[in-house]
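Renewal narrative, Specific Aim 1. Our central claim is that a sequence can be written position by position from structural information alone. The example that follows is taken directly from our test logs and has not been curated for this report. It begins with the structure tokens describing the chain, in the order in which they were read.
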């Protein structure tokens, strides 16, 4: 008999056909509630196995779920079914980014699983830059996990210095200056703009940002697409920079949260465009357990609706750049903060972070009037010869404490 996971949509409970009972035991049970608007407003999960979150089930978990007698063929089939479940759940929440390249069912598979498609056909190449990054990140993390086992990371986390208060730093900066608290980004390059700063010294830039009045720093750790690295995060932390640090990474696995904490991060980025509600909920709890803040990033109204239904979120980032097309429109911030969404954010006392497309004092004023209390800015200040003056130019005056 097939396992059925109930999914409620537009006020109705709809059965989502998943996999065999053995896989159901592995991933646990899921129930999602959605209001009439179609946005996910509540998420619940119960599981008997830690592997309930992960896209890629570990073979040991799968073998245990099959009674310890699974063949390699059984394991491959169950891993494939877990991936199919992940795709089905993501599609049901309006997530358009596929987490990994499509694959055919393993040889010998016979079951009910059929992948629903967004456009009626399977494309075997990434449909946009975010999907390309996500596919590569999944492979990269798999390699990194082999070199840095989770148990070793947990020990490193135990010996790591305490985290700094990322959310508190933003609130204090907003109160002190009357402007949105600045998260200044240490970024050498981007896929859309190429190299932003040839003579790139991450520590020097971070120290200049701090002198210029930044409340927090965002450090790009992706190497392939942004020319960053975790060594930059470690170097900035070791240099004595007091600003709390956001690890700017494409998180697709809980292992990355431990890794960021071990490397000196005080906060992590979670992108709603690539994470389901269940994953965001799980990663929020894990981040809190490790003392990390979590900036949950949205791009459109559907993602904002999903995120507002998840408990425990303090920071919501509105990215004015579409991570699919890379087109920038700062009016996106105002649009997402109007009406019911804005009311809920004020009621929950969330900090909204305006991201992308902010170059002038008028831009800062525009998003501040829309309701943001913090901004994340990279390109417009990192390209300046003097980042301190770049920050003053961005806000129209000196916001440093000196």
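The sequence written for that structure reads:
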């Amino acid at each position: 008999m097939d396992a059925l996971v109930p999914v409620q949509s537009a006020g109705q409970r709809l059965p989502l056909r998943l996999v065999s009972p053995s896989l159901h035991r592995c991933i646990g049970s899921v129930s999602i509630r959605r209001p009439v608007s179609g946005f996910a407003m509540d998420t619940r999960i119960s599981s008997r196995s830690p592997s309930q979150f992960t896209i890629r089930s570990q073979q040991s978990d799968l073998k245990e779920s099959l009674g310890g007698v699974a063949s390699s063929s059984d394991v491959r089939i169950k891993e494939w079914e877990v991936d199919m479940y992940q795709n089905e759940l993501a599609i049901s929440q309006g997530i358009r980014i596929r987490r990994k390249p499509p694959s055919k069912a393993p040889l010998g598979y016979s079951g009910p699983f059929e992948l629903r498609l967004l456009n009626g056909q399977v494309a075997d190449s990434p449909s946009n830059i975010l999907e390309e990054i996500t596919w590569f990140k999944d492979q990269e993390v798999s390699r990194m996990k082999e070199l840095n086992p989770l148990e070793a990371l947990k020990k490193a986390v135990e010996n790591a210095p305490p985290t700094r208060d990322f959310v508190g730093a933003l609130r204090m900066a907003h109160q002190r200056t009357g402007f949105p608290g600045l998260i200044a980004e240490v970024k050498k390059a981007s896929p859309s703009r190429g190299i932003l700063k040839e003579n790139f010294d991450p520590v020097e830039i971070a120290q200049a940002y701090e002198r210029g009045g930044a409340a927090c720093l965002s450090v790009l750790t992706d190497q392939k697409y942004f020319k960053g690295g975790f060594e930059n995060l470690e170097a900035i932390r070791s240099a004595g920079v007091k600003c709390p640090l956001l690890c700017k990474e494409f998180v697709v696995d809980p292992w990355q949260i431990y890794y960021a904490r071990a490397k000196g991060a005080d906060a992590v980025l979670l992108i709603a465009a690539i994470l389901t509600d269940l994953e965001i909920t799980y990663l929020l709890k894990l981040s809190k357990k490790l003392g990390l803040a979590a900036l949950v990033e949205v791009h459109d109204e559907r993602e904002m609706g999903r995120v507002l239904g998840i408990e425990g979120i303090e920071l919501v980032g509105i990215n004015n750049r579409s991570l699919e097309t890379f087109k920038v429109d700062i009016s996106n911030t105002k649009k997402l903060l109007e009406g019911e969404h804005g009311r809920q954010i004020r009621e929950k006392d969330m900090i909204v972070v305006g991201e992308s497309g902010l170059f002038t004092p008028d831009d800062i004023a525009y998003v501040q009037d829309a309701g943001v209390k913090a901004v994340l800015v990279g390109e417009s200040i990192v390209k300046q010869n003097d980042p301190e003056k770049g920050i003053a130019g961005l806000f129209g005056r000196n916001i440093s404490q000196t």
